[in-house]
TrEMBL record:
Name listed for the protein in its UniProt record: Reverse transcriptase domain-containing protein
Reverse transcriptase domain residues: 42-313
Pfam families: RVT_1, zf-RVT
InterPro entries named among the record's database cross-references: DNA/RNA_pol_sf, Retrotransposon-Effector_Assoc, RT_dom, RVT-Znf
TM regions (residue ranges): none
Length: 555
């Protein structure tokens, strides 16, 4: 008879119990059972196992008849038996403490709780509110592809906040991050690929980890209710026995109770937006409903307000970059990092534009190119050093009287004798420059004053600078999803499937722009010159205090 491994005697009784359970469950021959026990011991000791054991085949199950698109299928993960044993052991251990972590508002996958519990509680809440005669709303929210969008960093953060040890967190992270997927098409597998977020349907751990994610939403709701920002429905007859119910959760289905108050709905919008940005879980507006409780005359306005969830800040707009410390998330700092990258590109672009001065409210007096061939900062460095406001706009120094232009300068000290010559040249240059004094400032593209700015001309500028090539690597190394990098790459090449490019491939169709229905749909028009695109660019340029002007117009 084969002797048991030496390390088996060093395990705790609970560990032996689970390993024995694995052995008995699978009814495997002794050699195979010992092999599985060795894998389990390796995982317990070194927090890892052979990654090939975590290979997963995805079967696409249609959600409806005549399914045609990918979203019409439900991906079911077919997990290997060895990994499933390890995951089942972890799941059983996790169930032992889950009741201490999950609040009573969640009923899914919890021992001793049933699906009907949520239905009965919701029915009682509605009945009590109707008897009170107070107007309210019931928000029925559905999360879009909930398992697929879970942010791993946020999950590990929650596990740490729940008190799980570092070893446990390593186990969970290894299980969810080392999965490799292959899609089964007509029963045949395709090439394997990896994921960067999400939980697998079919993994014994996934339901339990998901309700931990949803517990974050539950705690956030408790916080806003405790602060009086959102009021739930009261259940009970007398004051001492009144119970406030603000939300019920069952897996990815969420019920939220609140008054028919725009301020409370607005707070819900803020809360769901924050939750989406950190967890990756987005509200599926197509399956969500806002149900009036009582005769709520402005229910459409409330629905429109709640329907803006994720409009300004979608999970994809954060590009999948999660924060492991959500308590430290400061939106000003987050956008500061984004704007910093935009400014770097703007600093390069601004070297190749000049301005025509209107009222001067968007052009920097010293630092922008509007007077001569160089900026005033570069031509008159001595005067720039004594300028009182080095970031002043032209409008701060420009005065118009009787259609005459006058310049008012402001220095920190009086000019010295040796500076008079510079000041004279400075004033000559100012008064010799054509300035309208009224109207909007206009930005011009130096390399094509007639045709305006085009992506093609800017690419040529980048190639000419120092003999360097277009920064293709920066496109693929950016912290954005691959589909975003791919789109930028195709756009830079001018290969987007616009109407013009499709016509070049002998596909017969109208060449109108799909947005404005006025001009031909070229790459430059669609991304730059279309009125709809220009509105987006105007917002971006406004962040820098500069109008887009003629630099983005067609000739």
């Amino acid at each position: 008879m084969e002797a048991l491994p030496e390390w088996l005697g060093n395990l705790s009784s609970l560990q032996k119990l689970h390993l024995l359970w694995c052995n008995n469950l699978m009814y495997l021959p002794r050699m195979q059972a010992m092999h599985i026990l060795a894998i389990a011991h390796e995982f317990h000791t070194h927090n890892q196992f052979e990654k090939s054991l975590n290979a997963t085949f995805i079967a696409l199950i249609p959600k409806k008849s005549e399914a045609r698109e990918v979203k019409d299928f439900r991906p079911i993960s077919l997990v290997g038996s060895v990994y499933k044993i390890l995951a089942k052991v972890l799941a059983n251990r996790l169930r032992l403490v889950l009741h201490k972590l999950i609040s009573a508002s969640q009923n899914a996958f919890m021992k001793g709780q049933q699906i009907l519990d949520s239905v009965l509680i919701a029915s009682e809440c509605l009945d009590s509110r109707l008897k009170e005669g107070t107007l309210g709303v019931l928000c029925k929210l559905d999360l879009e592809k909930a398992y697929d969008h879970v942010n791993w960093g946020f999950l590990i953060y929650l596990l740490r906040r729940c008190g799980f040890s570092e070893k446990w967190r390593h186990w969970i992270m290894f299980c969810i991050s080392t999965a490799r997927f292959s899609i089964l098409i007509n029963g045949s597998s395709c090439d394997f690929f990896e994921s960067s977020r999400g939980l697998r349907q079919g993994d014994p751990l996934s339901p339990l980890l998901f309700i931990i994610i949803m517990e974050a939403l539950s705690k956030m709701m408790d916080k806003v209710v405790g602060g009086g920002l959102v009021l739930g429905f009261s259940v009970g007859m007398e004051a001492p026995r009144l119970i406030m119910v603000s939300h019920l959760l069952f897996a990815d289905d969420t019920l939220i109770f609140c008054d028919a108050d725009p301020n409370q709905v607005l707070q819900l919008q803020y809360l769901l937006t924050w939750f989406e940005a950190n967890s990756g879980l987005k509200v599926n507006l197509g399956k969500s409903e806002l149900v009036p409780v009582g005769d709520v005359p402005f229910i459409e306005e409330l629905a429109d307000m709640l329907g803006q969830v994720g409009y300004y800040l979608q999970s994809d707009s954060m590009w999948g970059v999660g924060c492991e410390e959500p308590d430290h998330v400061q939106w000003s700092f987050t956008w500061q990092m984004v704007m910093e990258h935009i400014r770097k590109g703007w600093n390069l672009l601004s070297q190749h534009v000049k301005y025509e001065v209107g009222d001067g409210t968007h052009i920097r007096f010293w630092k922008d190119l509007w007077c001569g061939e160089s900026t005033l900062q570069e031509v008159f460095p001595d005067l720039y050093r004594i300028a009182r406001d080095k970031d002043a706009l032209i409008s701060a120094h420009l005065q118009v009287h009787n259609d005459q232009i006058h310049w008012s300068l402001d220095f920190v000290r009086a000019a010295q004798d040796w500076e008079f010559e510079s000041i004279a040249s400075f004033l000559d240059l100012l008064y010799s420059t054509k300035v309208r004094g009224i109207g909007e400032d206009v930005m011009l593209w130096l390399h094509s004053l007639q045709n305006g700015f085009t992506v093609h001309s800017f690419c040529h500028v980048l190639v000419r600078i120092g003999g360097c090539s277009f920064p293709w690597k920066s496109i693929w190394q950016s912290k954005v999803p691959p589909r975003v990098s791919f789109f930028i790459w195709v756009a830079a090449l001018g290969k987007i499937l616009t109407a013009e490019n499709l016509r070049k491939r002998h596909i017969i169709l109208l060449s109108w722009c799909c947005l404005c229905k006025v001009d031909g749909e070229t790459v430059d028009h669609l991304l730059l010159h279309c009125p709809f695109s220009r509105e987006v660019w105007d917002m971006i340029f406004a962040l820098f205090g500069s109008p887009l002007g003629d630099a983005g117009k067609d000739s």
